[in-house]
Design a protein that fits this description.
alpha/beta; Rossmann fold; four-stranded parallel β-sheet; 6 strands; 38% helix; 19% strand
């Protein structure tokens, strides 16, 4: 890929069906907007280096939040500290999507260092695409599609400078 990715999708592997549906909604934009998830990794890639390099270049991150997401040590210790720091320092847009009931409001993440911080945030400081009352898993498919459409439209706005 010649241009660095503009959007990073952060998700737990248990939530891959939601990733696949989101990617389908973003597919028509692929000529204009580069979207990256770990699905782009190929055999032999230094996956941790690739992910960290991508995190340093994106303009936005879509977070597919679920209990599995919040439980992931890699997300907590490697991805979110970089994204939260970049959101604070560089204005990276954080776009949470609540997939299923979880501790979205209560979970706190330290950054720039995942152990010592000194900063700490709940993801709930970022306006989510949906509410805890209406997680994706409880919505009928047509409402999920409407939410993914809204998210894709927001990605277009961000790529155009907000």
């Amino acid at each position: 890929m010649s241009n660095p990715p503009q959007v990073f999708i952060c998700y737990a592997h248990l939530d891959k069906p939601f990733l696949d549906r989101l990617r389908m909604h973003l597919a028509p934009l692929e000529d204009e907007i580069s979207v990256w998830s770990d699905q782009q990794l190929e055999m032999g890639d230094r996956w941790d280096d690739e992910i960290k390099s991508t995190l340093r270049s994106v303009k936005a991150a879509i977070l597919l939040v679920s209990p599995a997401f919040l439980a992931s040590k890699y997300i907590k210790n490697s991805e979110l500290p970089v994204l939260l720091h970049r959101a604070q320092q560089d204005g990276v847009k954080i776009l949470p999507v609540i997939l299923s009931p979880c501790l979205f409001n209560e979970a706190k993440f330290k950054f720039p260092d995942p152990k010592t911080g000194p900063e700490q945030l709940s993801l709930s400081v970022f306006q989510a695409a949906n509410s805890l009352k209406d997680p994706m898993s409880k919505l009928p498919e047509h409402e999920q599609d409407a939410l993914f459409l809204k998210l894709a439209q927001r990605v277009i706005q961000i790529s155009n400078g907000d």
